[in-house]
Each structure stands twice: as C-alpha cells, then as structure tokens.
Amino acid sequence: MEFDFTDAGLIQADRILRISTSLGTDVLLAEKVDIREEISGLFEIHVDVKSKRTDIRPEELVGTFADVSLEIAYGQRRPWNGLITGFREGPPVSRGLRSYRLIIRPQLWLLSQRSDCRIWMDMTTLQIAKTLLSEHGINAAVTGGVVNPPSPIHYSVQWNETDLAYLTRRLEFDGLFYWFEHEDGQHTLHIASHPFGYKEGPETNVRFAAGSTDRNHISEFARDYRFTPGKRAGGDWNFEKPQGPQGATTPSLVSLPKNAEYELFHYPSKAMDQTSNDQASKLRMQAVEADHEKIEGSSTVRTLAAGRKFKPYEVAHADHAFEEYVVTAIVHRIVDHSYETVEDGALDYSNSFIALPSRLPATPHRGTPQPRIDGSQVAIVAGPSGEEIHPDEYGRIKVWFPWQRNRAKKDGSDTCWIRVMQSWAGGGFGAQVIPRIGMEVMVTYLEGDPDRPVITGIVPNPSTKVPYTLPDNKTKSTFRTNTHKGEGFNELTFEDENGQEEIYIHAQRDNRIHVGNSRSKRVDNNQAESIGHNKTIEVGNNHHEVIGGNMTLMVGPNILQKGVTAAMQVLRSKARDLLSSNLGALTDKLGFLSDLTMGEGNMVIGVGKNKAETVMVSSSEIVGAAKTVMVGGGYQLAVGGIRNESTILGAYEEVGQNKTIVVGKKFEIVCGKSRFQMDEDGNIMIKGVSLQIDQGKEIKIKTPRMDNN
C-alpha cells in the first residue's frame, strides 16, 4: 500500500512515536529515537526528525523544551520531557523534506554550563542542591527517598568546577543517588539514599520469555556476579585529636571465599570524627556491594525506566523464582517506519538494561574527580570590623580569596578557621606569630584538597611594606611587630653591613628578661646605660664589682655634677693642706649650691649586717649642707697619721655619762690669746690675759710646794 505524502500524511496524531516542540505539533516528525537513562546520570535523547521546513534555525529550538512520547498500549503513552541542548541540520531527503537531529537532556544539564570558585558553609548536600536548582530556575528535587538526611559540611569549596560536577561530587560523598521521572511538559529530579526511594513501575510483573517474538517481554536475562572485597576502610587526621588518625572499617554483607582477606582502604576519608568515618566507610562499602550482583537484559517492555522496579516471571517455568529488581541503566531504541509504509509492524522498539536487586541501594561510587590545587594561592586575612588580630584558640585565622569575587564578605563570617604554619610548635612551647587582618598570606592545601587549606607564610605588598626601605637597608634582617590598636612597635633588628654590625632591640613599653640559672655579659669596649626614671637591683646573696679605673656615682640633678667636679679638682690639687689653707677656696666653689633648689637627689644605703670599706690611698667626702652620723653601740675612729678637724661656725658635744681623752705626748687647747696645755711629763699650763675662777662653796689645792710669783 502506498503512503500518503500529502500534508494529511505528515501528521502525528495516530503515530506510535511523537515529538512536540515549540515549533508546533507536526512541524517535526520523529523517525528514530535513542534514549539513555540511568540512576545517578543525566538522561540523553537523540531524535532524528524530518520536516517540510528546510530553514529551521537553531535559535528556534536550542534551549527550548521538547516532549517525546511512545505508545505503550491503546490510549496510553509513555512521555519523555527535556531541554533541547543540541541541534544538527541534516541533508535534504526525499519529497522536499529535510532531516534534522535533536539532542534532549534534563534541565539539570544546565548546571554543567556554569563553573565557579565558591565556598559553601554549613550546608547539607540537599540544601546545596536546592540552592543550585533555584539559581538555574529548576524546580526543587523530590527527596522523599532520603533516609537519615546527611549532616551539614562546615567548609566545602567548589573549585573551578561546573555546578553539576560539584553537586554530583557532593551527592556521591553522601551516598545519594538520583534519577528522573517524566510527564507531559515536565520532568522531575528524584534524590534518594535508600531502596525506599525506588518507584513502582507501571508493570510490576514482567514476563521473561527467551526467544519469544511477543511484543512486551524480556528476551534476555542474565545474572552477572562479581568478586568484591570483604572490607572497606578509611581514615583521616583530626589535629584536635592528635593521639592518632580517625578511622573505621566496615565488613561487607557479601560473603565469598576469602573475600574477607581483601580490604579497600582510602585516605583521607574527609571525616573528622568516628561517626563520620563509620558513615563514610559504610557508604563506600554499599557502593562496592552494588557491584556484586547485577542483571543484564534485553526486552521489548516499553515501560522499563531507570529508578523503577519490576519483577520477572516465567510462564514456561513457573517454578523459577525471581526477586524484585530496579533498573539502574537502560537504552531505548525506537524506529518509526510509518512515514514510509502503512504495513503492520511499522515501529521497531527494543531496549537493553542493567538492573540491581531492589533490596540494595544504588549507592554511587565517588567517581567524580576531586579538584586539586597544586602550589600556593594568595589570600587576605579577614576579621570583624574594628579588629586588627582575629585568631581562635589554636592560632587559626580566617581569610578571603580573590576568586570569591563579590561574594567575599571580608569579615571572616563566610569562611573557616585556617591553621597557620609556625616555625616550631610543641606542648606549651614553640613559635607564635598571628597574621593580622589585611595582610597577604600564602595558602597551600593538604593533599591538594581545596577543602583543607593551610597558611604557610606572609608576603609584603604595597599596602603592607617591609619595616625598612629597600634596597637601601638590604643588610638588615628585621622582626618588627606593631602595637595593637595603637601607635608603636617592638623590634629586633640585625645589621650586617661590614663595619656597622649591630643588634638593635626596641621595646615599646616593657622589657622583661628571666634567666633560670646564670647570666653572663661581656662588653669589650664601652657600655652606656640611661634610665629615665627609677632603677631597682635586688641581689639574693652577694654583690661583687671590680672597677679597673675610676668610678663616679652621682645622685641628683645634673647641675650637682658640676659642683662636685669642681670640688674634687680642689681636693686633688690641695689634698695635703685642704682643711688648713684651702677651705675658703672650696667654700667659694660650692657657694652656688646654697641658692639652688635641689629637688630630688637623695641616696639611701641600707646594710643588714656589717659594712667594710677599704681605700688603699686616700678618701674624700664633701657634704654641702649637714651630715648626721648615728651609731647604736660603740664608735671607734683610728687614724694612723695626723687627724685634722675644722668647724667653721661652732661645735657642740654631749656625753651622757663618762668621757675619757687619752693623749700620748701633749694635749693643747687654744682659743685666741688663751691656751691650755698638758704634756706627758705631767706639766699643765694655763695661759691667758686673765683667769677667773668662780666657785660657790670651796676650792681645794693639794701640793708639796706652791709659788705665787
């Protein structure tokens, strides 16, 4: 029978295979369709069409939705819906028509068309999925099949990845699988973690009949078993628990000869506590167990779909038992010959599929590559407004990265704490340098993992220059800090210029040194010490000083030094007759002190027990005003040669009880023209102008002889 090639013959109303696009119902006529569906994969539909329109432009179709449907029974159709992502113009065909090919994918495919560098903080995988789908204008996923939703991950980086790659990686990490459900005009994403999430198929029981030519049956059904290891293990390092790496081992539910001897170990597991390690090990074991038993088959059953369950049965062998399976991948091949012939059997349909026992979750392997960052990156230290230094208890800091673009808040609220490498770290000892807000730091990554940054150093830039101008000060090695929220700095500088070598230390406020045992200091030339206010020295036992030359100790204002220096010049030049002949000159030199307001200038010396002072040649002491000596017990003065004592104004001596004066040869008192003299021979002479004795009672004189002349 000839085919009707008029316009009436180029319609789809009664066709088993149909396509509908934004161009209209019958503008495109579907002839051949290849469809691939799978769990945890994007479906892809290739449709060969022809059209009376020979001038279809790609912008009329690409980016729009299309519906493909297949008749499964009289009045019932199976739909596929998706986004046209590819369009190919084919050659003209017979009867004035042109061929085209369309590629249809899910809206989720759009996530593969945007890549980013982005930090995700404290979000679960399901929350990330919802956010990304919303940003791309896609309806939220159905998540009823997720049992025990995954926990939030504190810090996760999308690094030069498409949104799809990042989302897929997160789904795999949490053991979540997905597939699509199709309706006329839309398709829906389903996410699940448990077999509860599988859906019942339109045909619960499907006949298996090998070699049959019936329309709706399974023609090939083969169980495929694989050897799988008996254990899955993993571990990771948690610096907060340095006793050892965190790890977990999960045995397989599949028991095979000797498979318990084989273990798949993975490090790092990216799990920081025991619960997370147990979960990670369990999920990876589930993915391995899903590889143990699979079904590979072929059929003409048009209702089989990824994520839907079915149960085979045999009519010829009713005693053969089959369990329930879920389709994990299927390829549909459809060819419609009805535009070329009106004979029966104008449509060819077949499929090949892979299935899994529906009692097992289709837990995915972690197959999406983890991005790596090789080498180091720059970052800027971040922190709250008004702060300069913002660490946590471990000295970790927060940063923002240039690749965050306008998302970076720069206050540390949108990033994690990052460890800072130090030159030394021990139990309460080591080095401690905290990078400050605004500094540029170098960041590297453990295992190259963007989720695990470590700060390895600080680099200067025009905003954070080095302490001394370069290259003028190229011989200086400097460690200078900056006063927190104030002006000033502490500094340690080494100058290595030949002939100018120096170690410079600057303390903005206090400088404290603690020596547990002994301290030695050697100065080969001069030492100068200047103290602005007070100085205290405390010696627990002995104090010993040896001075090879002279020692000058001044207490009081600097003007005192001038007077003392002048007096000492007189003492040195006239030491021999100082008190007898040069006292007046000394008084002239010191006269200016009487008009001077001295202010502070006191010196107090306290000795707990004994004090001994030895001067090998001579000792001079000048007291500008008064001097008081108080002796609690005895007082002894011994002079080896001559003792001279001069009092300018007056002298007063008071003895509470007895006083004895012993003179070896002669004792003499002179006052003007009066003289009293005693010698060792017993002679006593009193000489003067007049002598007056006033005695109220009596005078006794006892002598062998007395001369009155």
Concise account of the structure shown:
By secondary structure, this protein is mainly beta.
Structural class: mainly beta
Number of beta strands:
31
Helix content: under 10%
CATH hierarchy class name of the domain at 7-106: Mainly Beta
CATH architecture assignment of the domain at 7-106: Roll
Mean pLDDT: 88
Main pleated sheet: 12 strands, mixed
Main location: secreted
Pfam families: Gp5_trimer_C, Phage_base_V, Phage_GPD
Domain Gp5/Type VI secretion system Vgr C-terminal trimerisation: 477-558
InterPro entries: Gp5/Vgr_OB, Gp5_Vgr_C, T6SS_RhsGE_Vgr_subset, T6SS_Vgr_RhsGE, T6SS_VgrG/RHS, Vgr_OB-fold_dom_sf
Short key terms for the protein model shown above:
mainly beta; Pnp Oxidase, Chain A; Phage tail protein beta-alpha-beta fold; 12-stranded mixed beta sheet; 5-stranded mixed beta sheet; 6 helices; 9% helix; rod-shaped
